[in-house]
Design brief:
The protein is α/β, with parallel strands linked by helices. Helices cover 43% and strands 18% of the residues. It has 27 helices and 26 strands. The protein starts with 16 loop residues before the first strand and ends with a helix.
Length: 794
């Protein structure tokens, strides 16, 4: 603690009053030099007063170490005066004293009124040391002190000489007690023993106990050294014995038993001949290697991996097509195309057991059941299931493993998953393949090329194993949200099966069959306690979610279940039926509403269809005009391709101005502004070309576009409607948004069969060959009344 009081003032202490420094775990004896660190403000003041007046200071032990500001009742009554040989203040504000004990004293009265502790003391004179009994005790204590120093492992010779040179019995007793490893209260007892023979006896008894401990410690130390020497001797003898046994063809029984077990395990592992030869070679290396060698554990771990790999273990279940169909229908609603493909695989495998397994890649938005579908396939095929998550993997060694030359090397995730599955024909799911990374340790997608190539994976070589492993029987299933980020060569090795978003009817069935049951169990409810009618589930899916999958729908069903659980737990209800009218209280106001009619109530607004990584969606094209010079203004975070579509649409309108019944001279007097709302979301692609064309025609002709109609398609400057992608997702989004008519490019008729049957039944499809077909279908016959500003501009 730094001294904040400055130099201590003169307090005119009487001769029998001295400043006191209370100490916690230190006892100072007369004639002994010890360092003392003071940190408390009162102790610093006492030290400064003693240093300033060149008077001794009293060093007294506290009774309780935890007391921060001790008073007289907290202190012992006996201490020692000390002269301050040196006073040092360090840069951090600490105060350090070097004190030499001078004489014992007894506190007669504690004196107050000073910024430090002070006491009136009575000095204790040393007794006569010339009696025979004192001399005898003195000689005995000195001999014991010398013996104790000799028993210490590294006792300083100077201290030994100093002890032998002491001729004062009292000084010897005090110095011995000071340097012994005694507890503070034991040293205080010695300090308070004024009678010299009694003090010599007390110190002698304490020192005798310490000498006994030192003798035992020396014996233990010597025995330990002898044991170490004996262990080294035993190690050398064992090495010699091992060499002799090797020459005689004998070996250690325990080691030989371990080698025999490994040999039997290698024989039973069903390894191919070349792999077995390699394993036996490593086993011979292990047999010659001493157990203390650093490489011993590495070779042993390597052999364990070779033994535990399923070289020849296959699934024992037989293929039952009918049972597989039942399991797939039980676990997943819809997904007919995928189920048909899985049943085809099983049928082929039943007729041709030696055929190669396909490599399927499920691509679709989150929450449509890609991962759970892999588990259902494993269950339907009777195979073990293993999963490898590829999201964020950016190191080739995570696929192929590390070479054994590295410390802590392990096989790659593929080999680890197969070992965990325990069979060579397991179902191995490679999850989130589109999220593979690429770092400076290699490209993991390149390492997967060999894994997923049916012509190469029969001899897949993991860097750790160092021997080929047959992956041709493994049924690989990859999942991804988008295909764009998967490298072309890797994508070419897989059979891509697309999973689109669910329709409202499909979501209703999935909720009834799976989601509600799962959430009832998760929230401790039964079907009797909570009833969710179909119209309630439809309202949740329609008004509170806008997603391709079902994850958010399940969360909201869980929120409803928790609401009911609170009522039942409080005893306010025993059974509840949630109607659509109750949803506002539980989930809040509807998050989504059908704003198509509102958006298309004025000329110049068209409804388009878009594809996103999480499914289809609708978007609005808004066009407006104002007096200007014929400029085209585009806003809404449009990409380059979408901007070019808008320019092509305007050019096409200008080239067909008379055919469309528009004023040819008016186009040069107006600036046209095209905006696509949700301006913070980037948008790109050519499929909004038809929607932009119809929006411009609607704007310039003053006719509104039908509010129940949406369109998609690319346009050319000749007026042709070109095909686009994502038809299934876009049409599902249109049906989900409540639209009735969808205009699609005629060249996309091939995608009609991919559209779910329930969606096809609810929509009217118009196939477009040219933009004129879109104008005839989308624009209503009557011109809308223009706003005042628009009429004035015209």
């Amino acid at each position: 603690m730094s001294d904040e009081h400055g130099p201590a003032k003169a307090f005119g202490l009487p001769d029998d009053v001295i400043p006191i420094i209370p100490v916690r775990n230190l006892v100072l004896f007369p004639g002994v030099v010890l360092p003392v660190t003071v940190g408390r403000a009162r102790s610093v003041a006492a030290a400064q007063e003693a240093a300033r007046t060149e008077r001794p200071v009293g060093i007294v032990l506290q009774r309780e170490e935890a007391v921060e500001e001790p008073t007289g009742v907290d202190m012992h009554r006996v201490g020692a005066t000390a002269g301050i040989l040196r006073y040092v203040t360090t840069p951090d504000g600490s105060h350090h004293l070097v004190c030499q004990g001078q004489q014992r004293f007894r506190v007669t009265e504690w004196v107050s009124g000073h910024p430090f502790m002070a006491a009136r003391v009575e000095m204790v004179e040393e007794a006569d040391a010339n009696t025979p009994e004192v001399k005898a005790r003195f000689l005995n204590l000195r001999n014991e002190a010398v013996e104790a120093l000799q028993l210490l492992p590294q006792a300083p010779q100077e201290l030994l000489g100093a002890v032998q040179a002491i001729d004062s019995p009292g000084q010897l007793a005090d110095m011995t007690a000071s340097y012994m490893d005694l507890k503070p209260f034991e040293k205080q007892e010695v300090l308070e023993t004024f009678d010299l023979p009694a003090r010599l006896d007390k110190v002698g008894n304490l020192l005798a106990q310490r000498i006994e401990v030192l003798r035992i410690s020396r014996d233990i130390r010597e025995r330990t050294r002898e044991s170490m020497d004996e262990r080294q001797r035993e190690f050398l003898l064992r090495e010699q014995l091992r060499a002799i046994q090797k020459e005689l063809g004998e070996a250690d029984e325990g080691r030989q038993a371990e080698i025999g077990e490994l040999q039997d395990a290698i024989a039973k592992a069903g390894m191919p001949p070349d792999v077995r030869e390699h394993a036996e070679k490593e086993l011979r290396r292990l047999e010659r290697m001493p157990e203390a060698a650093a490489e011993h554990s590495m070779v042993r771990s390597y052999l364990d991996w070779l033994i535990e790999m399923p070289w020849s273990r296959l699934s024992e279940s037989s293929i039952d097509i009918a049972e597989a169909r039942r399991i797939l229908d039980e676990d997943h609603y819809g997904l007919e195309k995928i189920k048909r493909r899985i049943l085809e695989f099983l049928a082929v495998r039943k007729l041709n057991p030696e055929g190669r397994s396909p490599i399927l890649c499920f691509v679709g938005p989150p929450g449509v059941g890609k991962t759970s579908l892999g588990q259902s396939i494993a269950r339907a095929t009777g195979r073990a299931f293993a999963r490898v998550s590829l999201g964020g993997v950016h190191d080739e060694s995570e696929i192929r493993g590390h070479r054994r030359t590295y410390v802590g090397a392990l096989p790659g995730n593929i080999v680890q998953a197969i070992r965990k599955a325990g069979t060579r024909d397991c179902v191995l799911m490679l999850d989130e393949m589109d999220k593979l990374g690429q770092g400076f340790h290699g490209d993991p997608s390149a390492a997967l090329l060999e894994v997923l190539d049916p012509e190469q994976n029969a001899t897949f070589r993991d860097h750790y194993l160092g021997v080929p492993f047959d992956l041709s029987k493994v049924m690989f299933i990859a999942t991804a949200n988008v295909l764009d980020t998967i490298p072309g060569p890797l994508r070419d090795r897989m059979e891509v099966i697309e999973l689109s978003g669910y329709t409202e009817d499909e979501k209703l069935e999935i909720a009834k069959r799976y989601l509600v049951k799962r959430q009832l169990v998760a929230n401790g409810l039964t079907a009797e306690q909570l009833e969710l009618p179909d119209e309630t589930l439809r309202a949740i899916a329609r008004d509170y979610t806008r997603e391709a999958g079902n994850r958010n729908l399940e969360r909201l069903i869980g929120a409803v279940c928790r609401h009911v659980a609170v009522r039942i737990a409080e005893g306010r209800a025993e059974r509840m039926t949630i109607t659509p009218e109750n949803l506002t209280e539980i989930l809040g106001p509807p998050r989504f509403e059908n704003d198509v009619a509102m958006r298309t109530s004025v000329p110049g607004v068209a409804t388009g269809l878009a594809w996103t990584p999480v499914g289809g969606d609708i978007l609005f094209i808004e066009a407006s005009r104002f007096a200007g010079s014929g400029r085209l203004i585009l806003t809404g975070q449009l990409g380059e391709v979408m901007k070019e579509s808008a320019q092509a649409a305007l050019t096409l309108v200008k080239s067909r101005v008379r055919e469309l019944g528009l004023d040819p001279e008016g186009l040069d007097k107006f600036d046209i502004h095209i905006h696509v709302p949700a301006g913070a979301i980037p948008k790109d692609g050519p499929s909004a070309g038809v929607a932009m064309f119809t929006a411009l025609v609607s704007l310039l002709s003053g006719r509104c576009i039908r509010s129940d109609t949406a369109t998609t398609g690319e346009i050319s400057l000749r007026g042709l409607v070109l095909p686009v992608g994502g038809i299934k997702e876009k049409v599902v989004a249109a049906q989900r948004a409540g639209l009735k008519t969808v205009m699609l490019p005629a060249r996309n008729r091939k995608d009609f069969d991919d559209i779910p049957q329930a969606v096809r039944e609810q929509l009217t499809f118009v196939w477009l060959d040219r933009v004129d077909d879109a104008v005839r279908t989308a624009l209503s016959g009557d011109a809308a009344a223009e706003p005042d500003e628009q009429r004035k501009a015209g």
